[in-house]
């Protein structure tokens, strides 16, 4: 994402073109970037939330699938700046690039400026190929992982979710919002506010349009000596979605919160352009957002409770990590 005054758009386009057409991968800078990445990977492996996430992924996806891969430190250390140049050529190609510009300039002027700045850009070599996406499988399972010296326990759970863009996805998302979408959610009210076992717990539906790979994730870190009690509360609150239906107050609050999250994406031109690019990377168009916002006006409380009941009866893949002698 790049920003500039409207009057400087020509200069901004020229600068972007220079970066893309003449990439500079200094060997020393590249080595420093590799070291930083390796240190980050090695540091994260010592954290209970990382380990819980890794073990959960292994339970959800087949071995060898892109989703199940873990960063390979040895492979990272072996990367040279020449490798970066090849990867850049495979990924940064005019036939695979879409510009997202948020501005009050005329569209024809924006297009002409970009065409001029990038006129010399042509693809080099073959494009990078990508493996197909794997479909996750959720089964009732519990995985416990030892992390020496951890002061808290990490709890991560995955449940099935409807495909993004399906007729069930909007009411399902609102049910998830009620379950653990913000500080006022059911999970937070109990584990954070009432019990004081966690600084916060979140629930989120994650997936990509038309790929049937959506999952509902619940994640938190808790006081180690309240690990089992926290797991029991999480299971209980999820199950209660069937016996304690979403109230109209929760329903209306969830709709307001979700709508506000999208409206925040249009608070400035840079944020708007970044949001549009993020949507495009997931194969969504702005019309999809318009349709979703319209669905928020027509979705019913009965539809949300129907999806809440589905969540309550779903299998739960559970992953817990921490220093086991301290976990109770």
Describe it for me?
The chain has about 325 residues and is of the alpha+beta class. It has helices at about 10-20, 25-45, 50-60, 75-80, 80-90, 105-115, 170-180, 185-195, 225-245, 250-265, 270-280, 285-300, 300-310, and strands at about 140-145, 150-160, 200-205, 215-225, 315-320. A five-stranded mixed sheet has the order 1-5-2-4-3, sandwiched between helices. Strand 3 and strand 4 form a beta hairpin. Helix 1 runs parallel beside helix 6. The protein is globular, with a radius of gyration of 23 Å.
Layout of strands and helices, then pairs:
Layout: H1 9-21, H2 27-44, H3 48-60, H4 73-78, H5 81-91, H6 107-117, E1 141-146, E2 152-160, H7 169-180, H8 186-194, E3 198-206, E4 215-223, H9 227-243, H10 248-263, H11 269-281, H12 286-298, H13 301-312, E5 317-322
Parallel strand pairs: 1-5
Antiparallel strand pairs: 2-4, 2-5, 3-4
Helix pairs in contact: 1-6, 7-10, 7-13, 8-9, 9-13
